[in-house]
Amino acid sequence: MKYLQKLVFLIVTVFLPISLFSQTDLTENSFTLGLGVAVDLSHFSIPINIISKYRLEPEINLILLNRERDDTESKSTILDVGVGFFSLHAFDQFNIYYGIRTGYSLLDSETKREGSDPSTSKTNGFYFSPAVGSEFYPIDRFSLGAELIFHYSSLNIKSSGEEEEGSLWTLRTLGRVYVRFFIW
Predict the structure, then answer these.
(1) d(Cα 36, Cα 13) in Å, to the nearest integer?
(2) How far apart, in Å, are the Cα atoms of 89 and each of 28, 58, 94, 116, 123?
């Protein structure tokens, strides 16, 4: 993890300023393509602004969990792959946007207990998340933003340990802080 943090720091401090100051101004009807990352480094996106009024944002969210407690070890992988559709409203150095994020979720988990066979669980389904956010452009092509998400997911569960099947739905709010860099 420290290696990844050093790599991100190097990219931001060396390559980002060079690219930012060599760009031209955005026009009213411009098409822009960028890279976005949530501050916790688990959510990555590719924001695509279309005629400065709409944004299409493919996204991937990856979380790896590992827990050891007493005689039990649990490992989980969560992967969300989706896309966001947003309407943009620009005000000087600020954008306000609203729309939806939707996609597919996968969760694989394995639990090992000392003296017994491991149990696995596979969960998959979809998510639908209305979202509203704002971003600030301190310099051209670089933004800092925050987003409030109302996340609904519907999941199917298959567990090998007890040979169970079931379903689950969740409704929760999420807050994300973003850094976005528009490269084109």
Answers:
(1) 16
(2) 12, 20, 8, 57, 37
